[in-house]
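Need the bound structure for thymidine-5'-diphosphate, inputs here:
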Amino acid sequence: MTRGMFIAFEGGEGAGKSTQARLLAEALRTRGLEVVVTREPGGTPGAEAIRALLLGTAGEGWHARAEALLFAAARSDHVERLIVPALERGAWVVCDRFVDSSRAYQGGGLGLSDAEVRELHRIGSGGLLPDLTLLVEVSPDVAAARLDLRDAGNADRIGGRDAAFHAKVAAAFARFAEEEPARFARIDGDGPAAEVHAGVMSALGGLLP
Ligand code: TYD
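Answer from helper R.:
Posting the output first, comments after.
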């Protein structure tokens, strides 16, 4: 059995990652592939329980290391119980956010070092990385308009952090893509969903069966 491919979507808030993950999964299924669509934090009952803690009010006042440990713990459960078994049976896994979100938010945004975030990932998830990470980038006004529609002023605990925080997150993502061009594809997310999807499919190019 050939191992499945692991594709992650990354980007800031309101980039349209979830829509693109769904469209990609549909396109892969029409090619006869088994596809598991999942998200972080979450994806398994244990990780969804940690998600509720992380994004709800219970997390007010946690420091950056506590937050990073919880994301790593949620990811560990997700990788062991859902992602690795799916890949091993030959399914493709399409994941809305993965470890690069921890590197960008808890690293770039909250100031943990990249080495610390990677070390947590090594301990929790054996350092597993996606075969390809699609970084969906949108201009700040497009993101703001989409978030107004989606959240109507009720952003979660992390999404609701200030513009300076989100600018650091976006800069960190851009830096990762520059540092590892073979692992990342940068997708222009400003256009309509169908146009962005076409960009996703062309970025996948060589990986498609
Ligand atoms: P979600 O509603 O899934 O956000 P979005 O739709 O914008 O992707 O909430 C996930 C939030 O958690 C989002 O603000 C990003 C943040 N996050 C981290 O800070 N670190 C991480 O490792 C992950 C996976 C997410």
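Comments: The chain has eight helices and five strands. Residues 118 and 203 are 26 Å apart (CA to CA).
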